[in-house]
């Protein structure tokens, strides 16, 4: 059997995986081979969910805008269409925060684009 070389690098590699596995239950945080699988799966989820988070927030903003728009006598789709026709470029994130934090300003925006 050949002699193992570069002990420092391999130990550091294992230590890094075990450090990332902290907080896991049982052998998933203690045994390298078990921890490695959990860490790899966790990193896959983290990568996927960074993309998914953007979709989730956009859906939330649309729900908030629609609810506030209906209180002002219109719907989300009619409001967005009217904003595009008037050339008002307020993104959904800002529009949703206006709807929640400052309903008066949101009403002013709705009145401006619908009249």
Summarize the structure.
It is built from 5 helices and no strands.
**Structure class:** mainly alpha
* Beta-strand proportion: under 5%
Q: Provide the low-confidence segments as ranges.
A: none
Give Rg in angstroms.
25 Å
The mean pLDDT is 95
Shape: rod-shaped
CATH topology: c-terminal domain of poly(a) binding protein
Assign the CATH class: Mainly Alpha
* CATH H-tier superfamily: Ribosomal protein L20, C-terminal domain
Separation of termini? 83 Å
Number of helices: 5
H/E element sequence? HHHHH
The CATH architecture designation is Orthogonal Bundle
Q: What kind of sheet is the major sheet?
A: none
How many individual β-strands?
Answer: 0
Measured as a percent range, the helix fraction is over 70%
Give keywords.
single chain; 115 residues; mainly alpha; c-terminal domain of poly(a) binding protein
Give your account of this protein's structure:
This protein is mostly helical and 115 residues long. It has one domain (8-114): c-terminal domain of poly(a) binding protein, CATH 1.10.1900. 76% of the residues lie in helices and 0% in strands. The longest helix is centred in the middle third of the chain and has 40 residues, at 32-71. The chain is rod-shaped, with a radius of gyration of 25 Å. The mean pLDDT is 95.
């Amino acid at each position: 059997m050949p002699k193992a070389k570069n002990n420092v690098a391999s130990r550091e590699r294992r230590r890094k995986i075990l450090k990332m596995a902290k907080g896991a239950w049982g052998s998933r945080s203690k045994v390298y081979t078990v921890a490695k699988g959990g860490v790899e799966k966790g990193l896959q989820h983290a990568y996927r969910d960074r993309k998914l988070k953007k979709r989730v927030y956009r859906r939330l903003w649309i729900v908030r805008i629609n609810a506030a728009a209906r209180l002002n006598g219109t719907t989300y789709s009619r409001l967005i269409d009217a904003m595009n026709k008037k050339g008002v470029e307020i993104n959904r994130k800002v529009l949703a925060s206006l709807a929640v934090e400052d309903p008066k300003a949101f009403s002013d925006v709705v009145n401006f684009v619908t009249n």
